[in-house]
Amino acid sequence: MRTLPFILLFSCCVSWAQNHPFRVTGTLDCDYSGKIYLVYEDKVDSVQIVNRKFEFRGKLENENYEAGVWLEKRYQVDSFFLESSEITLDATCTQTQNPDYKGFWNLALKSVKGSASQDLYVKFMSDYQSYRGGKMSKEQLFSNGKKNIDDYPESAVSIYILEKLAQTFYETELTTLQELHAKIKPNNQAQVLVACAKIYDRLFPANVIAVNSKMKHFTLPDQNDKLFNTKTFSGKWILIDFWASWCTGCLEQIPNLKKLHAKDNLEIVSVSID
């Protein structure tokens, strides 16, 4: 009986780190008595709001993440960069006027204090708006963004800065943008990795595998830490299955994959993104 090759996929960009404690305190400007939620990494935490105030404590696996925050009956949510520090949120909340969502709430952050990552992002976006308004040159904006990435390659903020730079300077600074992409070492937060991959596709179009184009072989470590190359299956049909233990739909498809694998001349390379 043939076995399905199993590969553990680790991004070469991922930086592993120790736990980083954080404390988030906040205040609302409305009389809301329900819960408030904080989502980061693969965690969802919630606390009861008391006298318009709330507090979260936890630990991060990496230095910073883009975190989401919303009220219990949410309609509009907001986000900020969470890191290992004492962070203070000042938020406003209103009930939505959408008649289809009566009783639901909007939440918007008026200020975020204590997060250097958030400060970095806000400063760059301020520069970007200055450029859009004709108050800053393209050269200065690019220089500021490049310095941020050079100084903080492991920050989740850097990938979002690069995204804006790529939108603005693709035609004139492609080589430098490619070099900046190579410097970035994002954490393994799903949204960050997706953003990193999308920018890669834009900056390196020749490397993108398009529909009906020839597959490019790759090498990854298997479950025994031995390198496996898809060239092993040259001359055969190869199905590359990307899955994760938290993906219910992926697990439900395993019986179907086993049926497919029984067919002649078909090999399945199963790539875990856990």
Features:
274 residues; alpha/beta; Immunoglobulin-like; Glutaredoxin; 3 domains; 4-stranded antiparallel β-sheet; 14 strands; disordered N terminus
Walk me through this protein's architecture.
With 274 residues, the chain is α/β, with parallel strands linked by helices. It contains seven helices and 14 strands. The chain has helices at residues 116-132, 138-151, 156-169, 174-183, 190-203, 248-252, 254-261; strands at 6-8, 20-28, 35-40, 43-48, 53-60, 64-71, 74-76, 78-83, 86-95, 105-113, 219-221, 227-229, 237-243, 266-272. A five-stranded mixed beta sheet has the order 5-2-9-10-7. It has a four-stranded antiparallel beta sheet with strand order 4-3-6-8. Strand 3 and strand 4 form a beta hairpin. The radius of gyration is 23 Å and the shape is globular.
The number of E-state strands comes to: 14
Instruction: Determine Rg (CA atoms, Å).
Output: 23 Å
What are the low-pLDDT stretches, counting only 5+ consecutive residues below 50? Answer: 1-17
| Rounded average pLDDT | 84
Q: What's the level 1 CATH class of the largest domain? A: Mainly Beta
Distance between the termini: 27 Å
* CATH architecture level-2 label of the largest domain: Sandwich
| Total domain modules | 3
Main beta sheet, described? 5 strands, mixed
Listing every helix as H and every strand as E from the N terminus to the C terminus, the arrangement reads: EEEEEEEEEEHHHHHEEEHHE
Helix content: 25-40%
What strand order characterises the main sheet?
Answer: 5-2-9-10-7
